[in-house]
Amino acid sequence: MTNIAAPSETFWTALGAVGAMLALPTALFIGWLGYRAVWPRRRIEWSARVSPLTHTAAHGALTITHGSTTLSNPHVVEVDLSNAGNKDLETAHFNGQPIEITSTADVVAVLNQTSRPTSQRVLPATRHTNVLSLTTATPLHQGQTLTYVILVDGPDPQINLRASASNTHIKRQTRLTPDEIIRMYYSRMSQVVGASAGTGVLYLITLLIFRA
User: Which spans are transmembrane here (predicted)?
Assistant: First the structure.
């Protein structure tokens, strides 16, 4: 007949210690979920990539026109604008004001404007001399990304964005190169491996305590 020993006092002490260690992170996580539900996080992230249409050495040998306008230093600018928050940005959040993409070079034309996902509407763009004005007549949905491709004319265009969005954090994102993406991937993987190793060590310590 096999006798099964009752858990020792050391077992219950170790179990209580592990439970105490897990209780605080669990409480913090539940509190964080409640905070996000009550206080929505409004966040706009955007980026701009500027590409010259011609090489510097070719400026004197080429003539580029758009319609009847001769361009002296044309660039193509691709702007991504995303709702990175956890709620839709409604029209009222913009206080009746447009989102404006500004350029130190003249805005010549809007070449393309798209939305991801495609089922959601693009904010209509209106071109001015140094501004692309986006009408906030429809919501910018959670997770939606708008892309605008514009043609500008002028040396070294500097692109910026301004908006009168209430309680909304607006952040410019730097576009990563392929090498930077790879480095970020390995960094995240090392963090995951480190966290897994820490969990394994905690599990091993618990087993050793139980065996004592």
Answer: 12-35, 192-210
Asked if residues 76 and 111 have their Cβ atoms less than 8 Å apart, the reply is yes
What is the C-alpha separation between 112 and 67, in angstroms, rounded? 17
**Cross-strand pairs, 161:** 101
Q: How many CB atoms lie within 10 A of CB 75?
A: 22
Q: Which amino acid is at 52?
A: P
pTM: 0.67
And the tokens for 21?
Answer: 């260690």
Here the tokens at position 173 are: 């994102």
Residue of 135, 128, 146 lying closest to 98 (CA atoms): 135
Domain boundaries, the chain: 43-174, 176-212
The class that CATH gives domain 43-174 is mainly beta
